[in-house]
Amino acid sequence: MSVRGARKQYGDFVALDDVSLDIPSGSLTALLGPSGSGKSTLLRSIAGLEELDGGAVLIAGDDVTRVSPQKRDIGFVFQHYAAFKHLTVRKNVAFGLEIRKRPKSEIDDRVDQLLDIVGLTGFQTRFPAQLSGGQRQRMALARALAVDPRVLLLDEPFGALDAKVRADLRTWLRRLHDDVHVTTVLVTHDQQEALDVADRIAVMNAGRIEQVGTPRDLYDRPANDFVMSFLGDVS
Ligand code: ADP
Ligand code: MG
């Protein structure tokens, strides 16, 4: 997936300033940067939830810049996940498959597989209110993946949870990604989270990409003072 020359302004404020980024197929890329650097704006633009003022978004070579979010074939998980409260875990995960009228046996197999991967096999008949915060986000990941999206976009999905649960969820995400290999972009302002989980990190600041590379690249060869001091904050 790639973003070419993306530009986005809110009035006079430039939120995305000529952003170009290649996300390799099957990678888990972290979009890392301080609050207000434009991470969510970039992610929402990739999803089609924001309209760019300039530039393009390509998914698997297709220019989707003018394509509606529903037709971009993207899975999205936010910090505060809006589950269907009146549906069980199983029904929540199956939702996207059911509205696509997939055969019941296919839905059952797929849901079983995903619940197994996210460790919620024993929780199928529970309702979202009966899950912990971490379990709810694991359900959200399973639901986003159920329809085999071409790209999975995660915007601070663990941000609202405490440190121990966040650390567990990183492990889950890594395991999930190793199983499913879907091209994933994880937005985070947490350097440690990006370093722990991502194959590649794109560092954002003030609407621009400062550097893209493996965690090792960024540590060994930071492109500038911003990257050096931002990564240096890891405790
Ligand atoms: P991040 O996710 O990195 O914290 P955002 O992409 O949410 O940053 O925001 C980048 C900047 O754009 C912030 O300064 C924010 O205030 C501004 N911004 C985001 N959305 C809007 C909007 N709808 N209207 C005006 N300003 C916005
Ligand atoms: Mg954000």
UniProtKB/TrEMBL annotation:
This is TOBE-like domain-containing protein. The keyword ATP-binding applies. It comes from the Bacteria. Residues 1-231 form the ABC transporter domain. Keywords: ATP-binding, Cell membrane, Membrane, Nucleotide-binding, Sulfate transport, Translocase, Transport.
